[in-house]
Design a protein that fits this description.
The complex is a heterodimer of chains A (316) and B (402). Chain A is an alpha+beta fold and 316 residues long. In chain A, 65% of the residues lie in helices and 6% in strands. The longest helix of chain A is centred in the N-terminal third of the chain and has 34 residues. Classes of the chains: A alpha+beta (316), B mainly alpha (402).
Amino acid sequence: MSALPWWRDRRRLGWLIQLAVGLVVLLAIALLLGNLERNLTRAGLRLSFTWLNDPAGFDIAETLLPYTAQSSYAMGLLAGFVNTLRVVVVGLVLATVLGVASGAASLSRNPLLAGVMRTYVEVVRNVPLLLQLVFWYFAVFLALPAAAEALRLPGLTLAKSGVFLGPVSLVNGELSGGWRLSLELAALLTGLVVYSGAFIAEVVRGGIISVPRGQWEAAASLGLKPTTTLREVVLPQALRVIVPGLNSQYISLAKNSSLAVAIGYPDLYAVAETTLNQTGRGIEVFLILLTVYLGLDLGISLLMNRLAHLVRIRER
Amino acid sequence: MGPWRALVATPADTALTAVLALLLGWAGWGIFGWAFGRAQWLVVRANAATLMVGRYPEPQQWRLWLLLGMLVSLAGVSWGLLRGRGAWPRNDRLAVAGLGGATLVLPPLLALGAVNQLRLLLLFALLLLLRWALARWSGHPAVLRFASAWGAVWAVAYLGGLWLIAGGLGLPTVRPADWGGWMFTLLITSLTLLLALPLGVLLALGRRSELPLLRWLSVAYIELIRGAPLITLLFLGQNLVGFLVPGGLAPDRVWRAAAVLTGFAAAYLAEAVRGGLTAVPRGQMEAARSLGLSSALTIRHVLLPQALRVALPAMVGQCIALLQDTTLLSIIGLFDLLGTARSVLANPDWLGRYAEVYLVLAVLYWCSCAALSMGSRALEQRLSISRDRATVPPSTPSPTAA
């Protein structure tokens, strides 16, 4: 028996390849870190996080926290994170409502309704989100009329000074009362909800289609109404398909909220950019951003996995 | 039940139809009134060239016309070779009608100069001529020999196109900072895609490798990139690359952004390819191995051809997402189509003309994305993948932006 040459020995070759790849990766990392170390030292910016306690010195247009220009950078970043969280949480709820409604409606027997919903999905998915956001902000919300000629819908008042939920009154040419959203927040929420809603609609549609026709027919022959069938028979089964799809859409929404910077809403990324401009602490700011967004994704995934566990089919 | 009957099947349906029709009519009337009344389309007409090529110096723009002519010729020849001799199928007639309509209607609408209008008409005629000629003589031995080297022709043409845009080697140089508009968007998308495809395939193979180190590295890379918003990665590219390379060696901002986009797209393409890899039955690998094929040959001739065919729709979906994601370059101050539009709108002459410009951009992006997904569907049919056999969803843009 002749010995196998080493280049045909799968096991040995495998180890050799891993050794080579490992060495190259280690070398690259060492090289980059070495450069980083040298360059940071030269710029007098050695890695540290103590600057987070320094006063930030910039204002944040809207915040839920007691933040002022004298507060620390850490507080500013936290205020930005709370703003991000606000958009993500409200956006998730609204996008889910819109997505489920339009996903179900796109399967309607009424061809006009189904057609409108299909058109909505096709238009929104083929236009970049950032373009949609700047359109909503600059072309729609900034073009709103002044307070005196505000657009009044039931429970919703739209004017240049903001979007008001609930009853409002006009006092001295200013709108007051209700719950005010800034135009930036309103535009960001509208854009994100309309965009994510279209993707969620496709997820929901796919989930409903995945339920066999026989289930509809069986429910119909039991005398259930179509809406009852959808709610009691089809959706519980469709959810198994829908929930994992929703998970990735929710994560996309969380990541997409960072586009807020383009329309001036002070989310985490926008505050981080200002922080970088003032401190020059690029590495630290990037590490903070990466950690927070990865944490946000992980949090959404954990919640959705719990949900997937809840909606699983329980066999008798 | 016909579609018309379904509109009024029950009283509830009738009411719903009536309400929707009223709403649609109201919205349509409003849009019509705006488009032909209050909207001032002069901003688009006056900036058409800027939106197409950005600040590319005018005396050098003949190079871009030449590039367009080259692309049109190549497209016409490819189209003819692909179809072969015979009738023009429905898709082709649609494409001709669409392109012809656009060539006839858009230039006068945009008030382009007579020379440019003539150029566009000639390019359209060239496209049709080449499509017809190549299809007519597609069976000729000389054409067949030529067709076998066609991939190489495209590759050479791509490099030639880069040379035409950038200059050097005898042509005056045009710096990347002066590239812009739709041309820049298409350039950066195609370049990124070409570089990201092989990288994505390697990452997908790494993720399914039997070697633990390769697997871990691939998984770590893919998940890290997919977890972070694109804008934070572009932030890394713009602000930190200067620290990671020896002083003064950092490449131009455009190239740094292209590198980040490539790494980003590769992670997403890897996931699309992985979907295709899992669809190849284990028996295929075992059969190849028992025939004595080496790992490299098995991957090259057995695994990838089958996997990529299944993964095609998802991969095209990622291409569409990438085209849309290039708009983020406008946030870091580069002049892609959206960035160019924003710089036009920052000009006091065009104050407040947001709706007009952004609507035109939306139509342009929409048509490009829709054309890509239609092309992918046609390609799928040609590769005869039946929809129900594919384990990955049909090509649709994925929401990877940010």
